[in-house]
Amino acid sequence: MHACLSINEVQTQVFSYLAVGKKSRRSLARLARTSKTFSNNALKQLWSTPLDLEVLIQTLPNDLWIQEKEHGEAPRIMLTRSLSERDMDRFKYYAPMVRSVTMGDDGNALEEILEYYSKSGEKSFLPNLRYLTIQACGWDKVAKALTGLQSALRTIYIGVCDKEPVDEEEPTSYGLQDLTSAISKNPLLSQSLKKLVLVDHR
């Protein structure tokens, strides 16, 4: 191996090109497993932008979660018991590496994880998150996720589809109130947020 490939800055630059696309991400995973020289930077690049939160949730013990799928809906991860400190070992190892993530309808997993961190008094489960995309059916899920995040987020993209009927005169008023309230209740988020992109699919 050429000596220049042991330089952190060079590795970071090279690995950044492998972080886009599923095939390239698999190459990063192989690098992390096969070379101690590449492992640290390859893992950082791989986990800086996981495809969605579900990928991180699946680092929890296999006996802790199941995938449920209702007719016509995407699979959701459901936790089958309360989280323990030991359960969270791998999750906590990878979570600080995450800088951009997509959250969807992740069953009860996100709620349980937020509750765990709230009770334990630990910092945010995604302390270095900077870019967040939320795809959720219901403003309540969006508000709950934002209230529980203690990260210096810079950009949030929110796509909401609400299955409940809405007032035709003010179709998004109550949702926006929930959203702004969630942001204002989170001091770190209200100071760091630079860009909010809202897409209402109702």
What is the fold's blueprint, element by element?
Elements: H1 8-16, H2 22-34, H3 36-48, H4 53-57, E1 65-68, E2 76-79, H5 89-94, E3 100-103, H6 109-120, E4 131-136, H7 139-148, E5 155-160, H8 173-184, H9 187-192, E6 195-200
Parallel strand pairs: 3-4, 4-5, 5-6
Antiparallel strand pairs: 1-2
Helix pairs in contact: 1-3, 2-3, 7-8
Brief summary:
This protein has 202 residues and is α/β, with parallel strands linked by helices. It has helices at 8-16, 22-34, 36-48, 53-57, 89-94, 109-120, 139-148, 173-184, 187-192, and strands spanning 65-68, 76-79, 100-103, 131-136, 155-160, 195-200.
Describe the protein.
- It is a single chain.
- Helix 7 links the parallel strand 4 and strand 5 (about 155-160).
- This protein is α/β, with parallel strands linked by helices.
- The N and C termini lie far apart (about 55 Å).
- The protein has helices spanning about 10-15, 20-35, 35-50, 55, 90-95, 110-120, 140-150, 175-185, 185-190; strands spanning about 65-70, 75-80, 100-105, 130-135, 155-160, 195-200.
- Helices cover about 45% and strands about 15% of the residues.
In helices, the fraction of residues equals 40-55%
CA radius of gyration is 19 Å
Mean pLDDT: 77
| Uncertain residue segments | 164-174
DSSP strand count = 6
Q: Name the assembly state.
A: single chain
Largest sheet: 4 strands, parallel
Alpha-carbon distance between the termini? 55 Å
Instruction: Please list the strands of the largest sheet in the order they lie side by side.
Output: 3-4-5-6
State the order of secondary-structure elements, H for helix, E for strand. HHHHEEHEHEHEHHE
What structural class results from the helix and strand content? alpha/beta
Number of helices: 9
Q: Report strand %.
A: 5-15%
* Shape field: globular
